[in-house]
Amino acid sequence: MNSNRPSSNRPVYLKLRDQIAAAIIDGAYAEGEMLPSVRALAAEQGANPLTVAKAYQQFQNDGLVEVQRGVGMYVVKGAAERLRARERDAFLREEWPEIRERMARLGLDPADLALST
Amino acid sequence: MNSNRPSSNRPVYLKLRDQIAAAIIDGAYAEGEMLPSVRALAAEQGANPLTVAKAYQQFQNDGLVEVQRGVGMYVVKGAAERLRARERDAFLREEWPEIRERMARLGLDPADLALST
DNA sequence: ATGGCTGTATTATGGCACTGATGCACCTCG
DNA sequence: CGAGGTGCATCAGTGCCATAATACAGCCAT
Q1: CA torsion sign, B44 to B47 to B48 to B52?
Q2: I need a labelling partner for A66 at 20 to 30 A (CA). Which of A44, B12, B23, B96 fits?
Q3: What ipTM was predicted for this assembly?
Q4: Fold of the domain built from segment(s) B7-110
Q5: CB distance under 7 Å to strand C: residues
Q6: In CATH terms, is domain A7-108 a member of 1.10.10.10?
Q7: pLDDT tens across A23-40, in order?
């Protein structure tokens, strides 16, 4: 059983969104650089261009990405740090408490698992 | 943004399932005792009986709960420990790696957060 | 200017998960 | 036996997700 939160059966556009966010934070998509085009990323990921566009959408709304019509989308300066701060805050506020409680119930201690690669 | 994994917009039957599992592990639903009836729990939680039934379903399949038609559902002996072991294993195998990677990316260390209630 | 690349809007469609209303089969107790 | 409690099956409705086929608007190098 356990249909908990496997990243497997999440909507495609959310998986892409996470993946893109990670790339921005890690600098794989560096600031000032152009993001992969909607069509390119779609082809690479075997997804629909519209689905990719939907994933990109949220970054535009947050001003982390700038659109130059007819050219492409660029990572805004300072986007990586802003994104990381934002995600970290959200994680601590919305996800971590539940995870912590869950682990406590299962008899697990985060400190013990911190080292295990 | 951040439509990550807030327990808020999870399907009702999954939230119920988690809640029931927690009750069994914690002993709130003790072994040998009868679970709340589908209708009773539905009324209490403001959900549909069928949704509750769907939540119960998975526990039957796993043999953690025994059904007596026309009577009710009972927690099988040893269910709590079996359930905890099963969930703990699944958590470590499927969820923790992703959580750990995610925290690393956000600059968080599980050990630091272990103490904060 | 033209071809080729960008993002975007439109519309339609299929699939699937979630939720819900109703009724039936079963058991227990008085 | 009848009333009221069980779980469960069937059917239907709804909304989100993903895909598809076009078409359009903008930029740029040749």
Answers
A1: negative
A2: A44
A3: 0.87
A4: Arc Repressor Mutant, subunit A (1.10.10)
A5: A 35-40, 49-50, 53, 56-57, 60, 67, 69-73; B 11-14, 47-51, 54, 68-71
A6: yes
A7: 999 999 999 999 999 999
